């Protein structure tokens, strides 16, 4: 028993930071195998005598801590009358681990890391006092393993599901606000550009987060659709309409083999409503979806398209009547709240439309057109100005018969929403930075593509065709400096 307890502290070695990637990979795999060969009953017995999780440090001894924690979790499955106190203690240990594990060692945990996250998500839904801590822990596990958050995993899916179940919308933003640039690939189809080992320095996380790594389960199209749909629902809950619109479009723009899924229909219905809230009208859906998909989803969403048409015409009374008539539809689809947002949003677009025609209007006239009390209109306009939705000002005139005037500004160079040259430059620099970052991921994805076996086989066929049929451009790769810079070296490595 003492030997097992001592062995749990054998990794990492004192010289771990001086080991080569190859040596580190060999050592940690050997250690993992040695722990896997310890019978669960022996490990549980040692843990019962010593309380190993009080001895092992989750940051230093991540592999060992994970094995003991999993042993405790699995032991609960065989107990009929579970102790709430014991279960809560295990939940606390899981939270501690997910917040503090070593990201490098965690790459070798196989399926254990995602199992802890999934288990924790299930456990805490009925424990309201632990919601905040559990959400933070699962989020931490995603971003500790992959600080970029760029590779979508099954843990992302469980995390958003937990955030929706506990209404922890704002807590989801550190994950949602990161751009997903890759999905887990089968190890057999990936190329190790940055090195053969999980512990190597990788340009992006898709090199070590693969289906065969165990760090995620296989994701299919419906998983991807559901992730973006849940993300959109969280943004809707936070009233971040433009972000919600982007996530809904990610669902609609996804390629499909055959008929669109029910998730795509749900996304389209929400997209129509959010489009109205953001832009006052619905854009051409054919620019997002292919014709066949668009035809099906629109056929299932005629009531929503009808609402959008009425909203675009600014027919307030007609809109209210249509909403009332379709109450059961909106309720069954889970869109009652969004539909009511149309009524709230319509006055905003009415005022914006006034700006297109008038340079100034008496505030009393605006109130009359909006069918609101003067004080209510005054507060409403001030809110639009403060939130940046309207570039205008309310001028108070002197004199007993002089009412307030709403003055519009036609450009961003004047008015309360005007920006200085420095602010415009800063915005441009930040946008350029994001674009360059995205281009880096696109180039890396292209590089991985041209190094896959399927692509190289196709390239060889085209080269043979070139010899037989005359010059060909091979899709422009011969003239691509980035391809020519690494093709010989990497093809040799792949071979």
TrEMBL record:
Domain called COP9 signalosome complex subunit 3 N-terminal helical repeats: residue spans: 51-290
Pfam families hit by this protein: COP9_hel_rpt
UniProt cross-references to InterPro entries, sorted A to Z: COP9_N, CSN3
Alphabetical UniProt keywords: Cytoplasm
Keyword Nucleotide-binding belongs to the record: no
GO terms for cellular component: COP9 signalosome
Residues covered by region (Disordered): 463-482
GO annotation, biological process: ubiquitin-dependent protein catabolic process
Membrane as UniProt keyword: no
Protein name: COP9 signalosome complex subunit 3 N-terminal helical repeats domain-containing protein
Species of origin: Tothia fuscella
Taxonomic lineage of the native organism: Eukaryota, Fungi, Dikarya, Ascomycota, Pezizomycotina
């Amino acid at each position: 028993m003492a030997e097992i307890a001592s062995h749990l502290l054998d990794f990492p070695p004192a010289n771990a930071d001086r080991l080569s990637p190859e040596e580190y990979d060999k050592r940690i795999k050997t250690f993992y195998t040695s722990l896997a060969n310890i019978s669960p009953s022996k490990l549980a017995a040692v843990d019962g005598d010593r309380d190993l999780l009080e001895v092992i440090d989750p940051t230093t001894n991540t592999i060992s801590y994970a094995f003991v924690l999993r042993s405790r979790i699995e032991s609960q499955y065989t107990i009929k009358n579970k102790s709430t106190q014991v279960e809560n203690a295990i939940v606390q240990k899981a939270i501690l681990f997910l917040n503090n594990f070593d990201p490098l060692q965690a790459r070798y945990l196989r399926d254990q890391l995602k199992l802890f996250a999934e288990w924790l998500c299930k456990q805490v839904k009925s424990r309201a006092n632990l919601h905040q801590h559990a959400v933070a822990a699962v989020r931490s596990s995603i971003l500790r393993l992959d600080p970029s958050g760029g590779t979508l995993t099954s843990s992302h899916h469980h995390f958003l599901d937990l955030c929706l179940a506990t209404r922890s919308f704002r807590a989801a933003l550190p994950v949602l606000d990161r751009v997903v640039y890759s999905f887990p690939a089968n190890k057999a189809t990936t190329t190790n550009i940055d090195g053969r080992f999980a512990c190597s320095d990788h340009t992006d996380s898709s090199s070590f987060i693969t289906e065969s790594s165990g760090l995620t389960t296989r994701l299919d199209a419906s998983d991807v659709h559901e992730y973006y749909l849940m993300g959109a629902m969280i943004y809707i809950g936070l009233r971040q309409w433009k972000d919600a619109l982007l996530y809904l479009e990610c669902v609609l723009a996804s390629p499909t083999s055959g008929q669109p899924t029910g998730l795509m229909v749900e996304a389209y219905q929400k997209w129509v409503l959010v489009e109205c809230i953001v832009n006052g009208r619905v854009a051409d859906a054919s620019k997002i979806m292919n014709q066949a998909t668009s035809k099906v989803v629109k056929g299932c969403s005629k009531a929503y398209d009808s609402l959008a048409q009425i909203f675009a015409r600014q027919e307030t009374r007609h809109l209210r009547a249509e909403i009332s008539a379709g109450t059961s539809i909106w309720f069954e689809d889970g869109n009652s709240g969004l539909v009511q947002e149309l009524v709230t949003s319509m006055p905003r677009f009415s005022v914006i439309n006034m700006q297109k025609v008038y340079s100034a209007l008496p505030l009393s006239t605006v109130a009359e057109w909006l069918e609101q009390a003067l004080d209510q209109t005054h507060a409403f306009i001030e809110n639009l100005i403060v939130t940046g939705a309207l570039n205008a000002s309310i001028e108070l005139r002197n004199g007993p018969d002089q009412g307030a005037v709403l003055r519009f500004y036609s450009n961003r160079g004047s008015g309360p929403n005007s920006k200085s040259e420095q602010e415009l430059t800063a915005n441009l620099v930040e946008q350029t930075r994001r674009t360059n970052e995205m281009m880096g991921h696109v180039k890396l994805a292209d590089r991985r593509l041209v190094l896959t076996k399927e692509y190289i086989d196709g390239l060889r066929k085209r080269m043979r065709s070139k010899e037989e049929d005359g010059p060909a451009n091979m899709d422009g790769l011969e003239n691509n400096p980035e391809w020519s810079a690494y093709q010989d070296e990497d093809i040799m490595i792949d071979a």
